[in-house]
Specification:
Helix content: over 70%
Shape: elongated
Largest sheet: none
Strand content: under 5%
Radius of gyration: 19 Å
């Protein structure tokens, strides 16, 4: 099911463009990390956007922010991923199911690792903030869902790229807004989380396709030998 007969999770027509996006996103992550490593206060860009506090928004928008934030919590993210994986399997897209788990997991894992390496904090030394893992998760989830939609709809290079980036932008902006509104992150943390997902997911998708294709080739070579 995961061989060459299965559609590539990263359409060949999108590989070059999304590869470039991934490289640029990785550069942004590194630049922001260098600028704010070890800091515990909002930077100039953060203050220009909004002064992070615990009550940046009030009801009813605060309830919306809490609901969006839940999607990045362990329970919420697990529910979302399980539902998405089930949908991928029902649509007979096993590679997309693998990417949904691996892409989101690696995006969050990378964000967590970067938090400890960068050491930026918010509201105290115990609250590591850069980059936002919640933003990385929801961006990765939307990215993979858009890749699946691109395949199902048979979109070309331009339309497919636009759909993937638009989905990632909407999801990242929504979660980034929620995290800043709840005082959990600085705006540049959200940007870093968004870019982390943009860097990690295309690379993970490419790797999954390579591994699946190699497995399929080996099985294909083993078939004739077994019949001998």
């Amino acid at each position: 099911m995961t061989g060459r007969s299965a559609p590539a999770v990263l359409p060949p027509s999108l590989r070059a463009r999304l590869g470039l996006v991934a490289a640029l996103a990785a550069l942004v992550v590194v630049v922001i990390a260098v600028l704010y490593a070890g800091h515990g206060e909002p930077g100039r860009v953060d203050r220009w956007i909004i002064q992070p506090t615990a009550d940046s928004v009030r009801p009813p928008w605060r309830y919306v922010a809490v609901a969006v934030d839940f999607l990045g919590e362990p329970a919420g993210s697990a529910m979302v991923v399980v539902a998405a994986v089930t949908g991928c399997l029902l649509l007979r897209r096993p590679r997309a199911a693998v990417l949904m788990v691996a892409g989101a997991g690696l995006a969050v894992g990378t964000a967590t690792l970067l938090k400890h390496l960068v050491g930026r904090t918010i509201h105290g030394a115990d609250n590591l903030s850069y980059p936002s893992g919640h933003t990385a998760f929801l961006t990765a989830f939307a990215f993979v869902a858009a890749l699946l939609a691109t395949d199902r709809l048979g979109l070309g290079r331009t339309a497919g790229t636009a759909l993937v980036l638009a989905a990632a932008l909407v999801a990242g902006a929504a979660m980034g807004w929620a995290e800043v509104a709840l005082g959990a992150h600085y705006p540049t943390d959200a940007l870093g989380g968004w870019c982390t997902a943009l860097a990690v997911v295309p690379a993970t998708a490419w790797l999954i396709d390579r591994i699946a294709d190699r497995i399929a080739d080996r099985l294909a070579d083993a078939g004739p030998r077994a019949r001998r």
